[in-house]
Amino acid sequence: MSTPLVIGLSAVIVAVTDETPRVLVVRRPGAAGELALPSGPLDPDRDRTLELALRNWVRTQTGLELGYVEQLYTFGDRVRGRSGEEEARELSIAYLALVREGGAPEATGAGWLDVYDLFPWEDWRQGRPPEIDRVLAPLLARWADGAGGEAAAARRERIDIVFGLGGTPGDGERVLDRYELLYEARAVGESVRDRGGRSRPAPGTGQVLALDHRRILAVALGRLRGKLRYRPVVFELLPPLFTLSQLQRAVEALAGLRLHQQNFRRLIEQAGLVEGTGRRETRTGGRPAELFRFRREVLRERPAPGVGLPGRREAPPGGEREGAGERAGSRGMRARNREPAG
Amino acid sequence: MSTPLVIGLSAVIVAVTDETPRVLVVRRPGAAGELALPSGPLDPDRDRTLELALRNWVRTQTGLELGYVEQLYTFGDRVRGRSGEEEARELSIAYLALVREGGAPEATGAGWLDVYDLFPWEDWRQGRPPEIDRVLAPLLARWADGAGGEAAAARRERIDIVFGLGGTPGDGERVLDRYELLYEARAVGESVRDRGGRSRPAPGTGQVLALDHRRILAVALGRLRGKLRYRPVVFELLPPLFTLSQLQRAVEALAGLRLHQQNFRRLIEQAGLVEGTGRRETRTGGRPAELFRFRREVLRERPAPGVGLPGRREAPPGGEREGAGERAGSRGMRARNREPAG
DNA sequence: TCAAAAGTGTTATCCTTACACCCATGT
DNA sequence: ACATGGGTGTAAGGATAACACTTTTGA
């Protein structure tokens, strides 16, 4: 007798309202009402394509009509832990969708969550997130030390690389690597839960989601951050007309970084990504801003139009490498196009 | 009664021998002995993870033990055409694997194919591939004209963008976009076959594979080309010790471009990607070359270590845009780090 | 001695970064 | 008037691209 195999489709639906990136979640009927991504099984008879199936599910569960959709990853490892339950194995195909606003999915019980409530260590807009040094780094260090000599060194190297500690420049796109590391180190609630534990996760380790949904979200955020660089995806999240500040804040919200304003504007304009409409937005405080729109022609002009984030190049400015003991002081992430972060 | 759903795992196994990128294919038992990627169904009871399942299948079908493996994409649309057959629907999860050499999979009936026999239009190392202007561009133009006025213009724009015609700079990574376009335009054998047609594909449109395997390969090549830029994946394809020329030729083989030698060497070295061993390779013809090895420490030093290919930036050098009629003369792809192509 | 490939040095150009400053509105 | 955010100019630094040239082997 073979294990029944169900194909699930999950959606990471992202919007940016004001300055916060949000993700749509539903409350699961069963269990303790855990939060979960909208998802449902594939019906091979009805759904002609996977993407259509996904759109259907999202419509019925949240009332939302999706626009931009992209496949993320297929997760198929046997569900961790859950020992004894012996539930049907699920293969889940995850998608990323971008929508323009917090619409009105409230009626259906779905709601928006701040992405950085799930990943507090990913938001560097106010400078280095305090959770890293206060909670995560110590937990990770203990975990690394817990292994034998060889393995401990390997773990430490991995921590340095993915979190950008110890003089290693960080990479904003390695969201999944960071989450997986925290999972392995049992620093996030899911790894405790999946082992049948009952202890509460430490504060600062972020909101727990059902199943492996936070992992899926980590893949989504990493992918989205990467894509910002070379595809004009931000515009999927903005209204047709927007000011350059709105654009910048949306990018910053996703990248989790504060960017240098003057250069941002110039880069965007000289990249040909936007064009001014004569109209201006009379704003709160300060000079009215011009309204811009996305310039579609850029697709013909450039092979990979994107917004240009810092990172990706050389080693950090301060010379070779910091002393092994001196971790807390390091900013980790590169500071090229970054604002001083106040 | 519901359609049976089978989960298939497919592997795009890539190696680079001398100067040609190769992919491993097997001859399918049924049908007319079509060539196909190694693949097999997932056994939910035996295989704990998808990746392990894949490794098992590859081992039994080709005798190969895989090293680097990465998930590519999950294809699940109802199999095109095949009208009447009403076969079980298959969901196939595709993986990319990199191996070091053409091993000895001959015994098992598997064999290596030159990737550019499948995508002749992707190899720009000898300059612009003649197939583009001789075969593909005319076919595509006819296809575009076949649509109504509005749609025809849209099709033409799409052609320009993905093939880099008409002054639009090309992007070596859009391998899938180009293949899909050719499929839609019925320029490749698969689209004829999937519609039940029997006519032979035009010469220059590349070797046909079973099912959607060439599409999968297109995804793989595009992904690999992209990854070259920011992850040290080439080294998975090279022996532990190699000369800089070997490295360059491997990169060129995958990127389908010829690179400027002097700058390539400098970039690689100053990126800290390799380190010299004192040893030298006494070669055929010319001065002996030093043997290098991959410098693992680069992972700690840089957020995204890769080889730096041309492209990705601005519009082509020759000013605004070429006249609409003047297509054949355009090089299309950018020529920044490119050799004059002789 | 010559061909072929390896390897080095130098310069021009262009993108990115940083800094300084002016503009337009609401209170 | 001044605070606030919008918007522009310009110069320094750094990375790439292009070019010229030297070194070391085998035939």
Summarize model confidence as the mean pLDDT of chain A: 83
How much helical structure, as a percent, in the residues of chain A? Answer: 25-40%
Number of helices of chain A: 10
- Please identify, by name, the CATH architecture of the largest domain in chain A: Alpha-Beta Complex
| Overall strand count of chain A | 9
The SSE string of chain A, one letter per element, is EEEEHEEEHHHHHHHHEEH
> What is the name of the CATH superfamily of the largest domain in chain A?
Nucleoside Triphosphate Pyrophosphohydrolase
The poorly predicted ranges of chain A are 80-86, 313-342
CATH topology of the largest domain in chain A: Nucleoside Triphosphate Pyrophosphohydrolase
Which oligomeric form is depicted?
Answer: homodimer
CATH class of the largest domain in chain A: Alpha Beta
Short description:
Chain A has helices at 50-62, 115-118, 130-146, 149-163, 175-184, 189-194, 213-230, 244-255, 261-270, 298-301, and strands at 5-17, 20-27, 35-36, 39-41, 68-75, 89-98, 111-114, 274-281, 289-294. By secondary structure, the first copy, chain A, is an alpha+beta fold.
Characterization of the model:
The structure is a homodimer of 342-residue chains. Chain A has 3 domains: 5-117, Nucleoside Triphosphate Pyrophosphohydrolase (Alpha-Beta Complex); 120-205, no CATH class; 230-333, Arc Repressor Mutant, subunit A (Orthogonal Bundle), CATH 1.10.10.10. In chain A, a hairpin with a 2-residue loop joins strand 1 (5-17) and strand 2. Chain A is 32% helix and 18% strand. Chain A is globular. Chain A is α+β, with helices and mostly antiparallel strands and 342 residues long. Chain A binds chain B through residues 2-3, 5, 7, 42-45, 48-50, 71, 73-74, 76-78, 89, 91, 93, 157, 160-161, 164, 167-171, 230, 299-304, 311-315, 334, and chain B through 2-3, 5, 7, 42-45, 48-50, 71, 73-74, 76-78, 89, 91, 93, 157, 160-161, 164, 167-171, 230, 299-304, 311-315, 334. The structure holds a DNA duplex (27 and 27 nucleotides).
